[in-house]
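lol forgot to send this yesterday, sorry. struct tokens for the thing we talked abt
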């Protein structure tokens, strides 16, 4: 198994893309730390991973709070005695047109999506630097590259994640710590399932492959970046978007 007995922390892994990433890494042999603010769903993810024969533990954490992010990483180290992979997936949206966007809608998205990623990276960096190995994979978005009306806060946070990825990759490369980002496009989720048919058709017209992505499409790229197959790749942003942004 590609990740046999490696330890991965995946934030925002109670459901959706984060859960699929966690299950995919577990299926490849990794032991998991599941973290989210949704405890019930998070513990269900743990049960599903243990059913695969891998170890998994749950820790609640609001990654926008630096002390909680640091405690999450400390807990992972305490339970498993090591850390190999950090996947920063936790994120929220608070969509609104800029002229109507409240300060709280701006601040909360930046706090979770960008500051939360920073908090977790900073907490894990000492471990990775000391052991001279580690993988950090940040979940960005094509919206951070192209912008989107009604998502100035979200687009800014994900553009920030891309800049953070490249900067940290340069800082940690000498210690063999690889840092990359995955930028999903439109992925099949409960939210996109509720789109009216006209809106869905309009969305599909923007995608050369003419279909929405699946969470597994994102998870497979994260698995690649977590494995030895990507040992000469750092500071990159890999779009998983059906060709929408070229």
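and heres what i got for the seq, position by position
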């Amino acid at each position: 198994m590609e990740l046999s007995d490696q330890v991965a922390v995946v934030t925002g892994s109670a459901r959706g893309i984060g859960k699929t990433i966690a299950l995919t890494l577990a299926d490849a042999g990794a032991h998991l730390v599941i973290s989210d603010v949704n405890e019930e769903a998070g513990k269900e993810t743990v049960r599903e991973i243990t059913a695969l024969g891998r170890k998994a533990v749950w820790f609640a954490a609001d990654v926008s709070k630096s002390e909680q992010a640091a405690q999450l990483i400390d807990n992972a180290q305490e339970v498993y005695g090591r850390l190999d992979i950090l996947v920063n997936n936790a994120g929220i949206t608070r969509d609104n047109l800029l002229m109507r966007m409240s300060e709280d809608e701006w601040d909360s998205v930046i706090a979770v999506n960008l500051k939360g990623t920073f908090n977790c990276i900073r907490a894990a960096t000492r471990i990775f630097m000391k052991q001279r190995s580690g993988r950090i994979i940040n979940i960005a978005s094509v919206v951070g590259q192209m912008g989107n009306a009604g998502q100035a806060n979200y687009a800014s946070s994900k553009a920030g994640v891309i800049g953070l990825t490249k900067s940290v990759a340069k800082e940690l490369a000498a210690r063999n710590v690889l840092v990359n980002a995955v930028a999903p496009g439109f992925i099949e989720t409960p939210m996109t399932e509720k789109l009216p048919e006209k809106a869905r058709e309009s969305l599909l017209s923007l995608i050369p492959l003419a279909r929405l992505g699946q969470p597994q499409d994102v998870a497979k790229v994260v698995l690649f970046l977590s494995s030895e197959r990507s040992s000469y790749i750092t500071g990159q942003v890999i779009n998983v978007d059906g060709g929408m942004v070229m």
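Residues 103-131 form the longest helix (29 residues). anyway ping me if u want another try
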